[in-house]
Amino acid sequence: xxxxxxxxxxxxxxxxxxxxxxxxxxxxxxxxxxxxxxxxxxxxxxxxxxxxxxxxxxxxxxxxxxxxxxxxxxxxxxxxxxxxxxxxxxxxxxxxxxxxxxxxxxxxxxxxxxxxxxxxxxxxxxxxxxxxxxxxxxxxxxxxxxxxxxxxxxxxxxxxxxxxxxxxxxxxxxxxxxxxxxxxxxxxxxxxxxxxxxxxxxxxxxxxxxxxxxxxxxxxxxxxxxxxxxxxxxxxxxxxxxxxxxxxxxxxxxxxxxxxxxxxxx
Amino acid sequence: xxxxxxxxxxxxxxxxxxxxxxxxxxxxxxxxxxxxxxxxxxxxxxxxxxxxxxxxxxxxxxxxxxxxxxxxxxxxxxxxxxxxxxxxxxxxxxxxxxxxxxxxxxxxxxxxxxxxxxxxxxxxxxxxxxxxxxxxxxxxxxxxxxxxxxxxxxxxxxxxxxxxxxxxxxxxxxxxxxxxxxxxxxxxxxxxxxxxxxxxxxxxxxxxxxxxxxxxxxxxxxxxxxxxxxxxxxxxxxxxxxxxxxxxxxxxxxxxxxxxxxxxxxxxxxxxxxxxxxxxxxxxxxxxxx
Lengths: 266, 290
Known about the structure:
The structure holds 2 protein chains of 2 kinds.
Chain A lengths: L10 H26 L17 H8 L1 H34 L5 H13 L2 H15 L5 H25 L3 H9 L4 H12 L1 H17 L2 H6 L7 H11 L3 H29 L1
Helix pairs in contact in A: 1-12, 2-12, 3-6, 3-9, 3-11, 4-6, 6-9, 7-8, 9-12
Chain B lengths: L6 H5 L11 H28 L6 H8 L1 H34 L2 H16 L2 H12 L4 H8 L13 H26 L2 H9 L4 H29 L3 H7 L6 H10 L4 H26 L8
Helix pairs in contact in B: 2-13, 3-13, 4-5, 4-8, 4-10, 5-8, 6-8, 6-11, 8-10, 8-11, 9-10, 10-13, 12-13
């Protein structure tokens, strides 16, 4: 009865009301930011007295914002490639290999997901100060790779566990080399896992703030660090414009991911 | 797993079945994680007992000073309130999602995922603007005649709690939805047939059946909240620090690696202990939000 929507009686209106309010609570701040980014008020008055493109113009003509966006994109792209490649090789070992402590090792690979990021950020900051990688592109890539790799391993091992290895074996029996069979039979079959790994890795790096705050130098910073530094000074509408563009990118990536996953799973 | 002969092993006769296989494929990632994750974290923790002098002086200072204890208190109070709020709001939403027609629930799911994947700073910025003195929330409350002076909703723990609950909601709704979805409606039907009222069905059947999922979700939200850095520092202001901010401050502004390491170790121990509890109680499948 409680699990049948039509037989809940007046309870269902209460439940629906809570759900609609919660959905609004989750959605409205995002829409609010998008609306504010076009508002003409410097002081973020809502509803705005007028509408303007000014903040976008300011954002896109500021070399610092553009440089940080480009840095973010470069880092995220390199991290995505490395994370998928390393994740793929590791997943083969984790799913098909037979060695001691295999499950413990998988758990170890996933710990960066549960460790408080600030602990990792501070620890790596100390390490990179010693070896001179702080404030460098390589430092950013390495640190984000630690955080992205668990998502990659989770997605790819998931896909690989769902793939019947006898199909790959059949290709070998038909004369393919083991490597050829992996590339031409197994990889296409687990492509949805590879794709999720790529999307998660990209977003992990692209959105990452805490480690980036510690890795950044005055000359090299990512977009989230730039947003962070700006927010600590004032609540300028330029941040609203930057946030709106970030939200737009997320929506596009999510739609792309949903579509591609549908196509690949067929 | 192939049920017949293992062709790959036949193709490479050098490998014997009894010998471990596949370790070479895991080795690069293991080396990477060991150098850039495990080693730095352990080195940081070691500094907490090495600097400035060998011993537990940093821990004594951290746990003996009222300033720091207040920060521990803030951290646990905020995480506790956020957990309770997320659970109180999340349970009815997860329940509704499990039984409402699919075309409506897919809209709510899309909103949940959008909110979860929207840049954390963008979401925090939204709340900084919404909650400020001249912000929309205060304006609406004054307009409705509920208050006559603007409330201080930001730069204090109230702001942190609102912002963190906003962030944590999807993390509790999504797993809890899965748990409720798995409950057999026939159990509740049987209770109703035996004369149980709706309220009895809820308190004596649905909630007990969902309780393991609720506990697991709550524990996860609590642990995640303990270590949050960005949202508390932007919404809480400097006077209301949480543990993660303290760690960052020790390292960045005070350059006191010993104390920073000690604070990091406390956070690490609490986090890992609670995860271990969760693993022991609820198994692996319930950990991890996304």
